[in-house]
Amino acid sequence: MTALAHSRDTDAAAIPLWDDAYDPAVLGGQGNLWGDPPVPYAATAAALFRAHDAKVVLDLPCGDGRNLPPLAEGAPILLAGDTSPKAMAIAEQVTVKAGVRDRVVFVKVDAFDTGLLDASVDGIFCWDLLGHLTDPAPALRELHRILRPGGHLVANMWTMNDCQVSDPNIKEIAPKEYVDHFDFYCRFYDRADLDALLAEVDMPATACEVQSWWEPPHAGYRDYVHQHESLVFTVAKPAG
Fold it and tell me: 32: closest CA among 22, 40, 42, 19?
């Protein structure tokens, strides 16, 4: 097999599939797609945003809300953005249960065209999105556009040591490129790959580290305790 064509159209075609993935009929009794606690780095990102006096932070994609409770500690206003209304309906219940609903604003947001004004957010947490895009460069440029000078983007890219690579339900279509159990595209990066991408969009990382963490089983697939690994990087938009 050959790699998927890298294009905005290819990535846009996956958007309705994500909404389908969050359908209650698909989720069954699990209640949400991932069934996980927040990723550990969400609290680290919130501390970074708070230290730089962030007023508005965007979680994109918010998915079914796993990272919203810790991110709500990073700013008075947390925008929970996603293309899936079904995901956001689940995420809202997460915020209610965590007691942070009054700080969260849900908004339908496409990473390629957010609809937000220039320099309108102080921090962006972008977790488990960019690796699903065949062409992440336009999305990165859009996130940089809406980030205020002095603000921070915190994001991740999966490495080849991530458990997804060895999952029995994933198939390789090209070196470092796979299609997962939901037929979603997955691209895995090393540091050179990430540096090349960030150089392409003129967004050098101000920090980058390898992070590993364990997650509990997912109902219906990857039903075992598993370890993820990502390159977690921060881009600070120059002030002034």
Answer: 22
